[in-house]
Amino acid sequence: MTLQATTWQTVGPYFRIGLGHLDTIQIVPPDTRGEHVEIEGRVLDGNQRPVPDAVIEIWQANADGEYDASGFRGFGRIPTGADGLFAFSTITPGAVPGPSGKMQAPHLAIRIMMRGLLKDLITRMYFPSEGLASDPVLQLVPEHRRPTLIATRSEGDAAKLTWNIELQGERETVFFDC
Question: Whole-model pTM?
């Protein structure tokens, strides 16, 4: 006897149809205060193949480290293309206090959804900045795995960052249980 997932157990082939109207490539308007950055990367499976039907949701604080303050939305939803590529523009968020009051380094909260994934994945993308060594959440991650959570600046352009999401394998992105 074999068991097979039914359509209600997966996101299904209708992922783009149901969520497409929510796509937000520009997280903040151009006149938003803060350091504007462009972030791009790819979602890759365990064999380093692109995942063409993932959606990445982002939540972030404003430049002062506040969520949903004075009209700042800080939310976006970005689909991957056929090559697994995603790209969006935003600002570098300010540091935010953690549950114990200790400041967390600037980061984006990330949720990944895709066809065939029964439970969404939760992770973070940290900005290559000061404060990483004392971030209380990052300190919970084994040191050799931390680079999977930190974006890198593009050579020659400080306003461009690269961050890939690897679902399995040697450089698997760290995902959090929530």
Answer: 0.87
